[in-house]
Each structure stands twice: as structure tokens, then as C-alpha cells.
Batch of 2 targets.
Target 1
Amino acid sequence: MIRLAPDQSAQIRRTEKVEFTFDGTAIWGHAGESLAAALIRSGRLHLRDAPEDTDPRGAFCLMGLCQECLVVLEGQTVESCRIELQPGIDVTSLRYGADG
Amino acid sequence: MLLLCGTAQMADLIDILVVGAGPAGGNAALAAARHGKHVVLLDEQVKPGGQIWRAKDSSILSAPQTPESSAGDALRAQITKAQIDHRGSTRIWQIERQTEGWDVHVLRDGQVERLTTKTLVLATGAHEFVQPIPGWTKPGVFGLAGATALFKQNLSPPGQRTIVSGTGPLVFFVASEICRLGGTVAAVVTPNTRRDWVAKLPALARRVDLALRGALWIVHLMMDRIPIFWGCSVVSVEGVARVESAEIQKLDANWAPKGETWSIDADSLCLGHGLIPSIEAPQLSGVTISYRSDLGGWVPDIGEDGATSVEGVFLCGDGTGIRGAAAAELHGTLAGLSAAEHLGARTAKERATLRSRFNRAARFGLAMTALSTPRPGLAMLTKPDTIVCRCESLTQTRIAQEVEVGAASTNAVKSGLRAGMGPCGGKYCQTAIARFIAMHENRPEAEIPPSAPRPPLRPVPVSALSADFDYDDLPIPKPAPL
Ligand SMILES: Cc1cc2nc3c(=O)[nH]c(=O)nc-3n(C[C@H](O)[C@@H](O)[C@H](O)COP(=O)(O)OP(=O)(O)OC[C@H]3O[C@@H](n4cnc5c(N)ncnc54)[C@H](O)[C@@H]3O)c2cc1C
Ligand code: FES
């Protein structure tokens, strides 16, 4: 099949992969990308529970407005879409629900 | 650059402070600097570029250029060359009138700071409107415009298999970018029909370059055998703790859903229904607003070349109406020149030559806005138990109850239910609530203004507020849940 919209993903050069943890699980991402981008690529979409009804939520606006991507980093609640991934950080989701 | 914190240091008086470093604000800063003014350019993004030309993050070592990345690089190079004092990662959260000009309160590196300026150019752009649908809060649903931030900044697709659903040209751009970045598009779904597009041919003919690019996106998708469902919308999202599939339904001419639905599997969904001018900063500076459906909703009242009735305040770009990036660049230059003129420069001739180009670019942009703006029937996608206010998990039924007992404005719904007082500051529910009230009470949207903005415009951690400032009367929103 002719592909007019070429897949350019192989032409993108990124920084080396570094390890960090999300809820205790080791995950790899590229140093300097947003934490949300690394989590989305690894398939971790459920970042927090809604405080009122504990429904699962994840990154939505990807630009620091909606506050749906909040996670905990070093005891602080941060917008994962606006935080740069650093090697070795420990990130936890904001969970209230039972399903985990 | 030193952080001017607390009262430790008094800030210098800036000539022109530009808020927003997109096509509008970036060009405003360049124009004012050309006339010798002391310009400071602030933006919450790390680098200039705004939404359309958002810069890549530091994880990208090299990548093929796109029209957006090239245009952004050109703007960034000009700003560096002009030695404009650009401060990135800086969020503006309050604007106050002072005797000498304006105090602008910003948050940077977790610290608050106050800048004082003689004049303000506000170029805060737009944010997107998403009509709430059942399941739109599930992880894996992203805003259609928001997803482009992931493409431009991180060069990543939103998932392995994505449905793209929304209005106007953006839906095709998003689908095409997902293919380019190695993702798979399960389907493109758009409320617009082919006939809607044909009706815009005269406007498209004015910008053959942009029209061709759009046509190519569609040809690409067709060659890749990606289904395009015209005159349809995603109407609900299924999945346990994330997107697993989405239901699609045909829409009538008014965009109300009708007929049978069908389901498509996907792990992600990009969903969006047009842009809304971000008017909070102009409102805080005292600029009045009016309803203009052709411009995307409520817009600040502006005169020629971005001037306002508030002395020393100039506005430009999509924050004054969704006219698109080409118009935003020219509008930015015009507003930057107006601000310089206000401080004594002579710019009338330069502005006169730019005005007709701006008007031409705006005509094309407004044709795209007309395709993107939701028709009233789309509000029917929101069902009684659909969450409308994401922050407080408030359903349409709860909001309807508040409206029944007499809340006839978004302000009243806000004070009754806290809808719009959560951490997002109402950016993702206020318009949906206003449209709901309009539909429910059979009143025009023009009668239901957005609630008055209250600082902070962006979430400010309590820890950042230093005792030296008089913040006692500030209604700090509920802290983010811990
Ligand atoms: C998410 C999104 C993606 C878009 N993608 C495209 C696209 O790919 N192609 C296209 O043709 N059009 C796109 N648009 C439309 C877009 O708005 C363009 O028309 C163009 O970017 C408008 O330029 P502007 O300078 O007026 O605003 P913008 O480019 O939006 O610039 C406004 C700037 O102000 C900053 N800002 C706003 N409020 C604050 C604050 N309180 N503190 C600090 N900084 C602040 C923002 O970070 C932003 O950089 C997009 C719009 C949005 C909302
Ligand atoms: S995804 Fe909306 S704030 Fe991060």
C-alpha cells in the first residue's frame, strides 16, 4: 500500500531512556520529556481518582489547565503534563478508589 | 534573571509587558522592541511558540521539520535576536491596576513574583471546548487540540489505536499527525459534512496553500484506508478504567444525534468541538466583553489594532476571537505597534499597511471557525448522568436541578454547586453549562455571560504565597486533592 502520510517515527532521535517508578513499578522514559508523555507511552493512563466519586482519571488537556493529570512527586502534587522526567524519580498516582 | 520575590526588591518599571508568546504575543513583542521599547514577554510554556508552534521538549535531539516547527523556530530565532526579555515557565495569575500602570503577579519556579508595567499586551490565545459525552472522563480521552501539544512537544501519539472525533480542520490535522508519529487511527469522526466543506470553498480559495495542506491530510487518510465518518460524532466512551471502545452515531443538520449507533475499538480518543477565546486576563484588567458567535463566543471589546477602552491595555490574537494563527501574527504586530504608539512611538503608517492583510487572514480563519463551532444540537450528546464539571464530578442532572431552582447564570450555578470553582477554574465546564442553560430556558447564549473571573488565573500553591504580599482577600481555590 502506498503511504502518503509517511510514518516518521523512526527518524525521531530522542535522549537515552531512563528509569523511574510509577506506583512502585519500574518504567522507562526519555529524560526531558513530560512525565505524562512517558506514562502515556507506557500505557499508564489512570493517574488519579476523582475526589468526589473516585472514578479513574488521566491526562486530558496536556497543557496544564485541566488538572486531571495530577500525580505525587516527592510529596508534592504536580501536573504530570508540565513536569520534566528525571532519572530515578518515584511517582505515585492519587488514588482513593478500591480498584487500584 | 533574579527572582524578584516579596518586597526584597522593587521591580523595574517595564514599558510593555506581553502576556503570551504565541504568534500574537511574540509578534507584538517584536514590533514594540523594534520601536525601542523595553519589552518583557511572559509565557507559561518553556519556549515561545504558543499553541500552534509549541516547541519540542528537551528529550528530542532531532526530528523531521513540519510547517509548525519551522514557523516556531523562526519566531524563536527572531525573539532571541531581538534580545527580548522572554521569561518562560512563568504563569500569570493576577493583574491589578496601579497608579503608575499595572502590577502583574506571576508564578515561576514555585515562587510568586510581581512585575510592574506601563502598558499591557494580552495575547493569551484560546482553550478548547469539548461537549461532555458519557465516558469522556475516562483515562485515554484527550482534548483534540490538547493532543496536538503531545505531538509538537513530545512527538508521541496518544495511544496505539486512536479514534479522532471533532469539528473543523483540526480533526484531520490530528489524524494525520498520529499517522506521522507512528500511531494508528481507528477512525476519523466529524460532525461536519462534505457539503459543509464545499460551502467554504470561496474562503479556502483565498489560502490555497492551507487548503491544499488540508486536502492532503484527507487524501492521506483515504489512501491509508482510514474510515472517515462525515456528519457523525463519538457519542459515548466505553471501558473499565480506560478507553476500550467508543460508540459513534449519525447527527442531524443541527448536530443532534439520531438513528443507530455502532462501536469501534480503540485505546484512546481525541475529542474536541472548537476553540473558545481565553478572556480571563482581559476581564481582570477591566475590559468589557460581548457575545460574538462568529468569533467563537464571548470576546473582549476591542477597537482598531488591539486597543481597548482601558488605558494602556492592548489585546491581540485568538484571545480576541478565533481568527487563526495567520491573523494572530498580524494582529500581534498591530497591537505591539499600538502599545508603542501609546508610549510615544510613531506607528500609524506601518499599521495602516498591515490592516488589510490582517483582515484578509482573519476572513480565512473565521471560515474555519465557522466549521469548528458547535451547532446547538450537539448539546444533546450530554446525557442526564454525564459528568459536566470534571473537577467536582457534577452531572448534568445536578446542574439542571440548580437551574430549575432559579440559577439563571453560570455565576449562580457556580456559587450553588461549585461548578467552575474546582482546580481547572471552570475552563472545561463553563461554556457547556452556559449552553445547557440556553437550551433549557430557550434563551440565546448571548444572554448568558461567563462568570466573572477571579484570581488566581492559574493554580497557585499556598506555599508560594509569601507573607509580604497582601493576598488575604484572594479566593484561593480548593487545593488540589492530596
Ligand atoms: C491546544 C491548542 C492547540 C492548537 N493547535 C493548533 C494547530 O495545530 N494548528 C492551528 O492552525 N491552530 C491551532 N490552534 C489554534 C491556535 O489558537 C492558533 O490560532 C494560534 O496559536 C493563535 O495564536 P495566539 O498567539 O493568539 O495564541 P496562542 O498561540 O494560544 O498563545 C497564547 C499563549 O499564552 C500563554 N498563556 C495563556 N494564559 C497564560 C497565563 N495565565 N500565564 C502564562 N501564559 C499564558 C499560553 O501558554 C500560550 O503560549 C490550537 C489551539 C489550542 C488551544
Ligand atoms: S493534562 Fe490537563 S493539566 Fe495536565
Target 2
Amino acid sequence: MLKTKTFVKKTRSGGVMKIVREHYLRDDIWCGSEFCVECKQDSPVLQKEACIESNLCPFTHYLIPDTNVVLHQIDILEDPLIKNVIILQTVLQEVRHRSGPIYKRIKDIIHDAEKHFYTFTNEHHSETFIERLQAESANDRNDRAIRVAAKWYGEHLKNAPAAEELKIVLLTNDRGNKEKAEETGLIAHKCDEYVKSLIANPELVDRLALTSDDSNEITSSKLLFPEHLPLSKIQTGIKNNTFLQGTFRASRDNYLEATVFVHGEGEDSKEVLIQGLQNLNRAVHQDVVAVELLPRDQWVAPSSVVLQDEGPKDEDEADETETMLKSEASEAMLKPTGKVVGIIKRNWRPFCGMLSKSQIKEATRHLFTPADRRIPRIRVETRQAIALEGQRIMVAIDGWPKHSRYPNGHFVRNLGSAGDKETETEVLLLEHDVPHQAFSQAVLSFLPKMPWGITEEDMKKRLDLRQLCVCSVDPPGCTDIDDALHCRDLENGNLEVGVHIADVSHFIRPGNALDQEAASRGTTVYLCDKRIDMVPELLSSNLCSLRSNVDRFAFSCIWEVNHEAEILSTRFTKSVINSKASLTYAEAQMRIDDAHMNDDITRSLRGLNKLAKILKRKRIEKGALTLSSPEVRFHIDSETHDPIDLQTKELKETNSMVEEFMLLANISVAQKIYDEFSECALLRKHPAPPPSNYDILIKAAKSKNLEIHTDSAKALADSLDEAKLDGFSYLNTLLRILATRCMMQAVYFCSGMDSDFHHYGLASAIYTHFTSPIRRYADIIVHRLLAVAIGADCTYPDLMDKHKQSALCNNLNYRHKMSQYAQRASVAFHTQLFFKSRGNLNEDGFILFVRKNAIIILIPKFGLEGTVFFEHKDQKHSPSLTFNEEGPTLTVEKHTFSMFDKVKVTISLDASNIQHQKIRMALIEPVIPGVSVAAPVDGPVVKRPKLDR
Amino acid sequence: MAGLELLSDQGYRLDGRKPSELRKVQARMGVFAQADGSAYIEQGNTKALAVVYGPHEVRGSRSKTLHDRAVINCQYSMATFSTAERKRRPHGDRKSSEMSLHLKQTFEAAVLTQLYPRSQIDIYVKILQSDGGNYSACVNAATLAVIDAGIPMRDYVCACSAGFVEDTPLADLCHAEESGGGTSLALALLPRSGQIALLQMDARLHQDHLDTLIEAAMTACKGLSDVLDSVVRQHLQEVSVLTRD
Ligand SMILES: [Zn+2]
């Protein structure tokens, strides 16, 4: 049984514990080379034709990178040119320990058969395992292990036939390691030397990460930042509470300010404010850092100034802007303030952005400005600066030395011309981490084979509901129809209502590549002119989509209700349906309203509509909130795909009709799966917001002499209903928009991992997502759970594992959040395109928020929000501003702005910064001399928008 | 990245074993002269000592006596120094009582108790060093001790643990693997007949995985039985050399 020959014990001490572990050494670990005849391996990974053309190594060679090369030069290793690389187990373990994302990337490379990367388990090989010597550090031991393994390879393959030419090349950037390797007769090169010697691809040099050795030459010796503390000191500090650990969040508006979110137990989480370059100390957005609190007398208030890093021309130039931060602040506004003392974990990813070309001609070092304002500018070295001008590119950070104003990075890839619709879409998808590449062959291989049809076998397992008068109601142009409805009279006088949901889980089986891909995407992302599907189109727009007049599989939820919309019984079943009509909201509304129509579909719709109204009334009585957020819809030109008109979405009665039944189905299913699987039901909750969130809403209402109660959802809903002002009907909508901003995010969770299930917004004790499995992965899981609960499908291990499900929920929550951001970014981009083509527009708007130096305005016609600044850097004399916290009001010269004031603005596109084009608003009315502008007339004349609705 | 990688992509476990491989087993019988039978076993870093007394008259209360077979009395304990963390282990704590009970059930299934009616067999096992698979080491040590005592058994009882990592069953778990999360199962097998003497699992496991896990544990048990068999044969040889004249 045991193939071990030798038997070594490895001792690892940590703290007081002495851990003894066994460590078996084997002699059945193969070298993985095609040359070798000794090793009994099936399919060797390393090729015979292992030649990367290089001036330095003009012979067949296998590369062995050390840990730091893998950690820092992963972009190089990922290049298709680099093949036949031996990754030692020692290296892999160290990488795993030091960086999760890089570990994943190197593993992806190893799995790619084209790359011929071989993992050699050297730590368990009887001839390459070494024990740590006395007084040898763990790092030195690992370096030695790498050299021993490289040496072993050389000797092992020397005996192989036809391998005379073959050499092993060690890649290391560590001088000591290189010297020691050369002493023992190994060929060792520094990574950059090797890459520069490559004949085939000179551009690869651009992707080299700058190592600390290089950066010495390019920056002044002056120390700009305090030293980071070593991890051991940080850990001690955190233990005795002198330091706090938290996530660094850079401010979007002010590059000299950030907050560190310190995770505490329960309510204990808090935020620490960090101000000034020195205190920020090279932390980058999303890093996990250690902070030290400053003494109380040095605490400051968050500045409400907007500051962007224009980048001093000269590195040595002192940052004078920092003094601007120091504003007078009342005692109450002071926040715990601290400074970053060390970095616990970097969270760098490749960033999209643009190159700001150096002023000096022929220079190879340039500054890169990321699209995300929270990320500092990055210094990169490239020879293609001219070619990259005006292009969106991707850059990765390599490091941030303490004497450098900016982090160092390297070019990863070119995304295309800035301003180009395709490129910008790509950028916003990348920036929001939306997986959007085409589905792989592996994924597509799990699709049903066409032509697809329903078999006898299928019919046996399903209820045949094809004779029912089912129809679907969706927005116009919808091709992924997940839901359809029916309603009919029963003989006993009651009504039967059915919600039929596309049976996606029939087509996506647990665990296969298709399922994994869908789980990873988590949701379909809808951009203004593009949809990024969660599942391949064949399913989303065809086989799963409940189109009219075709037989489709459905998962049906059928209730018997009386005329008071009380549920008498609930039934779930897998079914086959044949939708009689795919209607739009408007079409459905027309049928309901048209007294002449009296066909089955119309009667079914009327029944549904009647019940929906009762359901909605009941829900609102229970305290459900009806909130509002202006949603924008573009009319896209069918040829140029440019937006030609912009309007807010109009809600019809039928929208709410469909919504009501979806809610009902979701609640019924949530209850069912929770009853059946109390530990692993996937549910959705919406926590009640902390009372302080409502402050702004209460203040705003008070300024209009209205009262908003926020003790409970019911109180809030009722007081919102009563908050009306004669002659200002839009006020109620504004209050609801504001209330929406006070809410928390709704999240998915696993019932076994949480105890609070309440859905605040819907005032429901339990809730889940069941009704959109084509575009949300959570619904697929819920379908599977429900299918098991009713015995229609079998279970599988991961479905019942609450930890795995909890991890899945985290991913889904993340993807949903990112998809929302991506959608908003897409709307913003299209708004810009729209204004670019339309020129200036003069519109009426309302003040949504009042800030210290600006007012934020909502244009109801477009659902567009914009900021009017009253301070400009280039202006000689700014107007006098008085900000009153209590109102809140802002007095500019002699005019006082308060929330909800009606104003008139001119809207235009500010394209001065190509990377951050933005909508600019300028005040027309009220007229304030020196502040407001005259209404421009060059824009096309527009009809005065109807505001009162 | 937290946690240990229990199984590498190349298919090696933390200590270098492949998923189905057992740890190194070393065993000796007759280590303790006063007792009727005794054995010492090392399975990797888990070390156990088993001592058997009997069959003898039932001690203590007579009411325990069974008229058709022998009573088996098991006692399990762990040495204070057996784990990395030194702690006092009072006698009869919940864990050891449970383990004692499991051992009793295992050996009631294996020993031909009906040959010794109205008598008692005592089996004492002590874990000297613990590194996962305590139950299996105890069963294997006790088997050897029972054989050493010359008490007839249906077959060797071999025990082994098995666990699950990313859909791969691992045999004979060490402590790091046991505590690394995931479900583990202990199985005692009578290898020749393939009968299961005891099967114990505390955590939840999906039904789909149960068969593969039991399969893995059974294969491991069979492997162990070969090792135990060779230990017994070697012991016999040594003893017969000593008693030849
Ligand atoms: Zn070989």
C-alpha cells in the first residue's frame, strides 16, 4: 500500500502549539517531459519542441520561474508565447499563500493544454525534497528547494535520448538566488533580461512589471511616504488594539481623502477617516489595511470639496492642495481620523483607463489615468505611447515604492478608441467585473440538440396545461419571457390563477459547465443597447422563453382564490404550456380597457387585474412601500444605434398587475422551500434601514411643513401617502425618490446561515426569487429546491450544503450590485451620446439635494440628475456661499436654495475630459447675477415638458 | 487565501499521499506481558495501545451476565499528552464513553462470544498520540490484542476513516484533513465476508456521495487487513522461533 521509501517528519511550531505532520516522499512523481523514457507517465505535458526563440537561450529549454516571478510577472506568463514552463509545488504553494487572484490565474494557465505548463510536486519527490537547515529562513529554504529541483531536472533529463540540447532555465529576479544558482552550474536569468531577449514578440517588454530594482533609477531619493510596518508588527498592533484592520475605500470626489471601513462584530463596524497623501500612505481602493487612530485633537471632518488629482508636473513639487482640505468644522462633525500604517492585503486588479502622454518626446515613462476615480494614477513604461494615444487601455499595478508619488505599473492590453461605443461598453463591463465573453464550447456543449421537441417521456412527468388560456405580458421587444399568467372561473365559483415560469432548471443540470457559467455570471445584465445573457441565447430567447403559440416547459404555481383574493389552496407542478399571446403592457392595458373585447385572453386579463388590485391594496395595508426611482428609456435609432430620444418609463396598471402575481408566487415558493429545507433554502431579505438614514428625508419634508414617520414601514408608507401639497403634485414623487435613497440593499442569503428573514420593502415575512430563472441564477436554485420539494427532480449535494450555498449567495449579491452599477454607467454614457447630438437643452428641474458648494438637480422629463457647482477653480471671484446644515439650505449671493425648489437649467455635454465626459448643468432660473447664465438658443427648440402627472 | 489545500490538482494530499493511500502502519503484538493479549499500533502519527483481559468470570454486578455469550467490556481513553494541546481528560467524558460504546459494538460483532457464555472479556485501549483516525487505530490495535489473547474471532476487524474533498474520497484521514471541514466517516469491516461491523458518521452528507465514500473506506479497510495479517503472521513466526525448543 505504501509507496513511501523514506519517511520524514516535518515540525511546524507556531505559538505554543507544536504541530507534527507527516511528510511522505515518493518516487512515483514523474518529470512530465516528452523526452523522458524513465518516467512511467501517460501524457507528458512538456514538449520536445520547446523553443521560445531567444537571444539569451538559443537552445531548447524549459523555464522554471521562482515565486516572485510568478507573483509579479503573471501577465508575461499568460502570454501565448511562453510555453513549456515547470511550476514547482514550492512556488505554487507560496503563490497560493501570498495572493489569491494570482493563484487562480496561474492555475488557469496550468489547466490550459495549449500552454504546456507542468506542475512538479517537488516537495514530495524523494530526490528533490530538502529539509530546512538550522538558521535558514523559510524563504531561503524555498529558494534552495527551487534550485535543487531545477538541478534535478537537468540531471534527470540529461540521460534521456535526444535531449542533449535541452537545458533548464531558472527565472529569478533575486540577485542572491541567481548567483547561488549559477554557482551550482544552473542557467539562471533575470526575468526582464530573458523577456527582452525574446525574438518573436518585442511588445512583451511593455507588459513586464517594474521590479523594485528598476524603479530606483527613475525616482528621486526623497522619501514621500512613511514606511509600511511589517506584517508581524501589524498583527501585534491589531491584537493590542493600537491598530485597526479594515477595507480602504478611496473617495470618488477627493483624491486626498478616504475612509477605512473597520469590520466589527454586529453593530461594532465603524469608519475611520483618512486625509492627506502621507496618511493615505499608498493604500489603493479596496486594499485591506491597518490604520492607527490619530489623537482626538487632530480629528477632522470629511471635506465636501471636490478635488481631482491633476498630477503635479514635477514630482518634487509639494502638494499645496492639501491645505485646502482643512476646513472649519463644528465639533459634532469631526470623525475618527487615522493614518494607514501598513498594508495587510493588496486588492489590485487590472484597471481600465487612458494614457496621459509624457510632455517629453520619446519618453517611455508615462502616467496612466484610470477610469475609476478612486484609483490613483499609475506610472507605466511603454514604447507604444503614440499608438496608445486616445485609446482605452488596461494597466496593472506592480508596486508602490515609498519614494514614488505614483504606483508603478505595466501595460496589459489595448481595448480600442476612447469614445467609441464598443470600447466604452467594453470598459464599463470590465470596470464592473461583468463576465461578458462569448460562451465557451464546453458551455455550449450542454445545450439541447436541435431540433428540439417535447417527447412522450416528458409529457408523462408533466401536467398538460396547453389547453389553458395562458398569456404573457412584458415590456416591448422582450425576447426572454420568463413568466406567463392565466386566470379562469372554477365551477365552485372560485377563481383559479396560475403563474407559469420558464423551466430553466430542466435544461441546466447541476454542476455541468453550463451551470457553472450561469452561476458565475449570476444575472443577465441589461445595458441600454445590449444584453449580456446569463445563459446562451438558444435557451434565453428560444427554448426557455415562453413565447406564444409554441409548447414550452414551465414550472407552474397554481392557486385557488376566492373573489376577495384570499388563497384557498396552492399547488406547484412542472407543466407544459402553450401561451396564447405575448402582449406588451400597453396591449394588455388596451384589451382590459376596451369594452368591446370579450375573448378568453381579455377575460383572463380582467380577472387578473381585478385580483391584483385587491392584492396590492392588502399589501399596502400591511405596510409595503411604493417607492419611486426615475427610470430612463432611450429610443435607439435602429441603424446608427445612437439614442435619439430619452424619456422616463411610464408605468401602466398592467405593470403592477404582473408584478403583484410575481410577488405572490415568490412568497408562496419561499414559504414552501423554507418549510421543506429549513437549513438550505435560498431566500431574499431586505433589512430595515437604520433610523439615521431617514434624517435627510425628514428634514426635506419638514422644509415643506410635512411630517414623515419612519418608525415602521407602515408608518412610512402612510405618511408618504399623505405628504401632498396643493399645486405641487410632483413633490410626492420627489419624496418617494428620496425615500428610495434611504433604503438598504436587498440581498440573497441561505436560510441556515441567518435568522432575520424580513423583507422590509414588501412587508413580507419571507421572500425569494422564483419568477425570472432565465435572467437570474438565484431563481434556478429556487426552482431546483422547489422541484425536490414536490418530488419532481432529484437533489444533489451542493444544493443541500448551506456553506456552499452561502458562498453562492455572496457571488450573486456581488454580481447583482455590479450589474446595477453597469446599467447606470450605460445609461450615463447614452445620456451623454444623446446630449452630444442634441446640443444644449433648457429644462425645468427640482433640487434633490443641497450641498456645500453645489445643488443636485433632477430633471423629471429625463430622470436625469446633475450637479450645478457654484465654485469654479478658474473663476476669479466665487460667489458668496452660506450653507445651513439644518435646512439644509444654501444661500448664493442673495438667493437661498432649499430642497425641492423648482429651477430651470441648461444641459450640455462637457467633453473637455475625454475619459470623464459628463453632463453639465448651468442655472438659468432663478436669475442670480454672476451665477446664472442666459438661456442659450442654439439648441433645438423643445416643447415645454409636462411636469404635473 | 485561508485554509489548507487538502488535495492538490496533481492529486496529492497534504502529506504527499494519493487519495486512496493509507498512512504507514507499524504494529507489534504481545507488548505487555501481564495481560492476556496486547498490541501496539502506529498509523502514521496516531499511536494506540490495546490490552485484553479474559475471558474471565464476570466481575462486579452479576446482573450483567449473559447466559448465552460473553460480555464485552471496552474502555477507551486518551493520554493527556496525546494531542498538541495538553489538557486533562477526565474519565468517562462524553466523547470517550461514546467511543467505548462504539468499540464494544464493533467487537461484539466480531468476537465469537457465544463460545464463552457467562464470562467477560475486557478490552482497554489508550490513544498515546492522536493525529486523526483515533477510532480506527483503536479497533485495529484491539483486533491484534484480541488475536494475541487467543480469543477466536470471525475475522479481523479492520477500521478506517474516509472523508470527502471536492468530490474525491480520501482514505485514512490525518488530523489536518479531519479538521479541515467536510464530512468524515469511520467504518469497521470484516474484510473476508465484507460485512460492516460499524459505520459512523456525524456530519451531513448527501446521499449521492455515500456509496463512493463507503466504497473508499472499505477498500482502505481491506488494505489494512493485509497489513494486520502480515503483522500477525510475523508475530507467530517470532513466537514459534522462541518456543521451538
Ligand atoms: Zn522523467
